[in-house]
Amino acid sequence: MRARSWLASLVLVCAAVAVVYAAPVLLEDLTGRQVFPTTNWWNLDVSNAPLDQQSAAFINWISNRTPSNPTATRRVHPDFGPPPYGIPYVVVDGSQPRVTVTFDYDDESDTGIPGLLGYPIPDEARTQPHYIEGDVPGGGGSGDRHLLMIDRDRWLLYELFATQWSATNGRWEAGSGAIFDLNSNGRRPETWTSADAAGLAIFPGLIRYDEVAGPNEITHAFRFSTRSTNGYVWPASHRAGSTAGAPPLGTRLRMRASRDISSYPPEVQKIFRALKRYGLILADNGSDMYIQGTMDARWNNDVLNPAFHSLTADDFEVIELGWGRGTPPAPVSNVRIIRIQ
């Protein structure tokens, strides 16, 4: 009788442990979940927003036009695809253990939420590919190495830049990190970075396979890069350059309404419709007109590449810098200002 009781208790304990350490899910389908409120800058319909007075000048700069080469063009590129291209994300439940991260920019990085310090980094990220941008287990030592984690129960987004597991020090290290409440419009403090040069969240600006393949329209902007930038404007909070003539971080482009997209495959038309309605937000320095999306084996580059490459910067226009700020977002929600000295 005692042996049976002991065995039953052991089964219960094992079941409890299985719940506590529920497996993380790479690229979990999140269609139907609202990523930031509909009033958030990522989700603003900009199809009727006014043009910026510098729109033509910014497009010329992005196109790299000069007096000696006034007709230069810059083609659009999908900066994502099957591994190792793109930025992955992993979804965890609220019981996922948190681990401490050591930051290079610790004065502008978040260490946790009230009562729960650390980041929900799965153990698998140390030894398995597909968890960190670049597709190297543990992150490796080069590249942006973004690691994006979503707590599906608390609906929190954790993002890290330059992520690396240090076997020597027995710890996770990163350049910077930020935590976002996906139910609020909280913005980073002025001049603060995030895991992104602009101080913005990364995940809401990615082209995701689940949205493209799903039944609904895409209802948010995408993130993109240019070769350099000049300061920042709302909704960005951080500068990463001061190149004369370059657009500031936070600049928003939209595809011209007149651009005919009827000949593209249906899944590409869905992406391009979002470009007309929600546009692009300049979020980082990199290559001109590179639009970011998820690292997902289901992408077909034979479809994506020719479709995106058929577009140029001239198919876009720049809306009024800072447009949409007329309805201020909620004050900084501070799931993130928690630091241990």
Give a quick rundown of the structure.
A hairpin with a 4-residue loop joins β7 and β8.
Task: Summarize this structure as a short list of keywords or feature phrases.
341 residues, alpha/beta, six-stranded mixed β-sheet, five-stranded mixed β-sheet, 6 helices, 16 strands, 17% helix, globular
Protein model, in words:
The protein is of the alpha/beta class and 341 residues long. The protein contains six helices and 16 strands. It has helices spanning 2-20, 55-62, 124-127, 209-213, 266-277, 301-309, and strands at 25-26, 77-81, 89-92, 101-103, 112-113, 116-117, 147-151, 156-161, 164-166, 171-174, 176-181, 222-226, 252-255, 280-285, 290-295, 316-318. The strands form four sheets. The protein has a six-stranded mixed sheet. A five-stranded mixed sheet has the order 1-3-7-8-11, with no helix packed on it. It has a three-stranded mixed sheet with strand order 4-10-9, with no helix packed on it. Mean pLDDT is 92; it is low at 1-19 and 328-341.
